[in-house]
Amino acid sequence: MLQQTQVSTVIPYFNNFIKNFPTLNDMAHAPLDKIMAMWTGLGYYSRARNLHRCVQEIVKQGGAVPKTQEALKALPGIGEYTSAAILSIGYNQPYVPIDGNVERITARLFAVQEPLPSSKPALAMLAKTLNNHEEALVRPGDFAQGLFDIGATICKPKNPLCLICPLSDVCKAHQEKIADLLPKKQKKAEKPTKFGVSLFIQNSQGQLLFRKRPEKGVLAGTMELPSTIWSEQFPSLEQAIIETDCKGEYKKLGDIKHVFTHFTLKIRLYALVGHPDFITQDQKNIWLDLKELHHYPCSTLMRKMIAYSVKT
DNA sequence: AAAGCGTGGCA
DNA sequence: TTGCCAAGCTT
């Protein structure tokens, strides 16, 4: 959960997961659908599948979380960082988990001028030397937590609080008064904007028409309103009706904007006038009361669209 | 190996 | 408003 996600965001999700799945065994035997539904709003939905597969694999192997980095990294969703975090915090082994905080601290401590991400290997080499002190090696977990907390609260990306930093004595960037300029970043490509049309379709019982997105790609496996693919410009309503196979008379509701990591999305919303007579009950068409939507995985984008449609 | 993959908070 | 960034992993 914490991968690329702030602690304050994770806490309520974490508590809910622990309540529903007190043991690895509980989660391993839960349906993926339930885990996906509980992940609603947290983003990066492949993490939910990986977590489920990971727990199932551990239970299959006997139920003990592996104690070697090699075995941990072989599990779905666990890479260099997470394996090191488990080993240091969970098993008190002398690993240094290298996240964005540790990279930033390291870049400043050693005044690394090379920009991210190409400096990652060099920063990793340097970061792995940070625990070469007796106190650090006695309590590897506390040492790792300490690095995270310094990064999050003192050695911040902007306006680092060097005046109260316990590392300022040994920080090369601070000595050179360039802490706030590091780490340097390579320029990112400009975000493209994509456009789509989505349809708000309610039946006579007040249920909404949903479909399930493909298991790969953006928002994989989450529920969505019938939608066109997202392309270079707004598709016409006619195109949307053909593409979604939802014939009928529609009225325009308005446009919604949503920002993803690597593109911006603009969605034009239409609502069906009256009730549909064209939708057959089949595999891809799913009618849901809004009250039962929480049993299904649903992106924040889709919740935004639904809220907008209901209000309009 | 570079790109794909969410969302929310904050300057 | 916009851009940055967060306890990264996968392909």
Automatic annotation (TrEMBL):
Residues 1-153 form the HhH-GPD domain. It comes from the Bacteria. Pfam families: EndIII_4Fe-2S, HhH-GPD, NUDIX_4. Keywords: 4Fe-4S, DNA damage, DNA repair, Glycosidase, Hydrolase, Iron, Iron-sulfur, Metal-binding. Binds 1 [4Fe-4S] cluster. The keyword Cell cycle does not apply. The keyword Metal-binding applies. Its cofactor is [4Fe-4S] cluster. Adenine glycosylase active on G-A mispairs. MutY also corrects error-prone DNA synthesis past GO lesions which are due to the oxidatively damaged form of guanine: 7,8-dihydro-8-oxoguanine (8-oxo-dGTP). Belongs to the Nth/MutY family. This is Adenine DNA glycosylase.
